Amino acid sequence: MSGSRVDLKVVLLGKEAGGKTSLVERYLHDRFHPNVPYQNTIGAAFGAKKVEVGGINVTMGIWDTAGSERYEAMSRIYYRSARAAIVCFDLTDDTSFDRAKFWVDELLKNEPDCKIYLTGTKYDLIEEEKRPRKVEETKVEEYADEIHCLVYETSSKTGQNIKELFYKIAQDYVEDPKNREPEVDEGIIDSSQPNTKPDKCSC
């Protein structure tokens, strides 16, 4: 597979205002807008980025879906055939973790081949003591063990664990023996290869 290019569909799911759009903005454009008023994603927003893994260019198509329950049926369209799902929850909002579980159940039922990455957002608010942690780390790790997925705690403000998360997704895709038929695509080159071990990671 050396030198080949492959496509990987990644979808973000989770409650509205759960940090999905900010996470994608930080990864694709390396920016964060703390003073911009929150706006709902309507349907889904799409972006693409290329990352090199062991000499293989992986072009990720990243779908940021709407978190509002009224767009639930539409989100199902966007996660169809996804090979990776970043299921987000706000570390300062316990109801967002319940919503994350809903999306995990949906994926396990409808897209069993989709690899799940459980992702806590807004870690900077806890670190800076602006908001208390409402989703306990042990609770998340126990659930992750149950569904056999990785856990990342991220901050779109600081960039914590975001490059690592997406690089791990691309690396897992390349290393999966089921993905041996690469397709050619173009994208934005990102040659950075960060340490794939996150600050908070549970297998």
UniProtKB/TrEMBL annotation:
Source species, domain of life: Eukaryota
Name this protein carries in UniProt: Ras-related protein Rab-24
InterPro entries, per the entry: P-loop_NTPase (IPR027417), Small_GTP-bd (IPR005225), Small_GTPase (IPR001806)
Keywords carried by this UniProt record: Autophagy, Cytoplasm, Cytoplasmic vesicle, Cytoskeleton, GTP-binding, Hydrolase, Lipoprotein, Magnesium, Membrane, Metal-binding, Nucleotide-binding, Phosphoprotein, Prenylation, Protein transport, Transport
GO cellular component, one term: spindle
Entry EC no(s): 3.6.5.2
Residue ranges, annotated region (Disordered): 178-203
PROSITE patterns referenced in this protein's UniProt entry, alphabetically: RAB, RAS
Membrane topology summary: Lipid-anchor
Essential cofactor(s): Mg(2+)
Gene Ontology molecular function: G protein activity; GTP binding; metal ion binding
Catalytic activity: GTP + H2O = GDP + phosphate + H(+)
Broad enzyme group: hydrolase
Subunit relationships: Interacts with ZFYVE20. Does not interact with the GDP dissociation inhibitors ARHGDIA and ARHGDIB.
Protein family membership: Belongs to the small GTPase superfamily. Rab family.
GO biological process: autophagy; protein transport
Functional description taken from the UniProt entry: The small GTPases Rab are key regulators of intracellular membrane trafficking, from the formation of transport vesicles to their fusion with membranes. Rabs cycle between an inactive GDP-bound form and an active GTP-bound form that is able to recruit to membranes different sets of downstream effectors directly responsible for vesicle formation, movement, tethering and fusion. RAB24 is an atypical RAB protein that presents low GTPase activity and thereby exists predominantly in the GTP-bound active state. RAB24 is required for the clearance of late autophagic vacuoles under basal conditions.
A Pfam family the protein falls into: Ras
NCBIfam families xrefs: small_GTP
Compartments (UniProt record): Cytoplasm, Cytoskeleton, Spindle; Cytoplasm, Cytosol; Cytoplasm, Perinuclear region; Cytoplasmic vesicle, Autophagosome membrane
